[in-house]
């Protein structure tokens, strides 16, 4: 069966450092892999997506890599700030308009 | 970009009663919307796909008679939790795909507590 795994342990990081989160998937060939941010009691907010034929994508302080051989995506937050503290979810999708399948999320806590 | 409005944000109801949750797409006409459920410290699990003009498609294990979905127009989908029980207490979130774009917009979520 399809499985998407993220590190369930919270990531505690010092302000200014780079946070790196991992997303692994099995039994799936997504066309897109996406990363969302979720704050407590709120719906997810889209951050970045990367296509199956792309290796890396950047947006401001965020960077996503995608290795379809390893079936893994890495999500980096550089120069982290306390405001980056949230849960980050990876999600995969077969095609635009289809349903998203989410990983369990990784909570990030950036300490000042 | 598309904005999704979900209402109510919180609701407390008595066991045995029904609760309706609305999901509106404010900027985008959506033939499809998705309903997710999220238990504490867990990820979002898809419950059903809401289809405008036709029946909803439910995921395995989700009772269609308990979670009624009505996609009344291209901008509104409703989820009704019927005969709610304490185990239905959860965070319900809708999402609207953006057509040709793969990313989705999500509602603010509804915290349902059944007492």
Question: Which terms would index this structure?
Answer:
A: 112 residues; mainly beta; B: 115 residues; 0% helix
Secondary-structure-derived class of chain A: mainly beta
Q: What is the share of helical residues of chain B?
A: under 10%
**Biggest contact:** A-B, 24 and 27 residues
For the biggest sheet of chain A, the summary is:
6 strands, mixed
Descriptive account of the structure:
By secondary structure, chain A is an all-beta fold. Helix content of chain A is 0%, strand content 55%. Chain A contains no helices and 11 strands. In chain A, strands 2, 4, 5, 9, 10 and 11 form a 6-stranded mixed β-sheet that branches. Chain A has a 5-stranded antiparallel β-sheet with strand order 1-3-8-7-6, with no helix packed on it. The N and C termini of chain A lie far apart (41 Å). The mean pLDDT of chain A is 93. Chain B has 115 residues and is mostly beta strands. Helices cover 0% and strands 56% of the residues of chain B. Chain B has strands spanning 4-7, 10-13, 19-25, 32-38, 45-51, 57-58, 67-73, 76-81, 90-98, 101-106, 110-114. In chain B, strands 2, 4, 5, 6, 9, 10 and 11 form a 7-stranded mixed β-sheet that branches. In chain B, 37% of the residues are buried. The model of chain B has no long low-confidence stretch (mean pLDDT 93). The chains are: A mainly beta (112), B mainly beta (115). The A-B interface holds A 31-32, 34, 36, 41-46, 49, 89, 93, 95-105 and B 4, 6, 32, 34, 42-46, 49, 91, 93, 95, 97-109, 111.
């Amino acid at each position: 069966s399809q499985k998407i795994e993220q590190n369930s342990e919270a990531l505690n990081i010092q302000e200014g450092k780079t946070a790196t989160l991992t997303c692994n998937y099995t039994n799936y060939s997504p066309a897109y892999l996406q990363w969302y941010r979720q704050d407590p009691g709120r719906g997810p907010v889209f951050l970045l997506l990367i296509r199956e034929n792309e290796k890396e994508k950047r947006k401001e302080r965020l960077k996503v890599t995608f290795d379809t051989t390893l079936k893994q995506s890495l999500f980096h937050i550089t120069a982290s700030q306390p405001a980056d503290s949230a849960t980050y979810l990876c999600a995969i999708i077969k095609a635009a308009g289809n349903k998203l399948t989410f990983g369990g999320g990784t909570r990030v806590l950036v300490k000042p | 970009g598309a904005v999704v409005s979900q209402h109510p944000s919180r609701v407390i109801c008595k066991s045995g009663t029904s609760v309706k949750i609305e999901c509106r797409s404010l900027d985008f006409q959506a033939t499809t919307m998705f309903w997710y459920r999220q238990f504490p410290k867990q990820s979002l699990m898809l419950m059903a796909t809401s289809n405008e003009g036709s029946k909803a498609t439910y995921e395995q294990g989700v009772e269609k008679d308990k979670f009624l979905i009505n996609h009344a127009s291209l901008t509104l989908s409703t989820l009704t939790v019927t005969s709610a029980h304490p185990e239905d207490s959860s965070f319900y979130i809708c999402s609207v795909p953006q057509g040709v774009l793969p990313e989705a917009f999500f509602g603010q979520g509804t915290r349902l507590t059944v007492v």
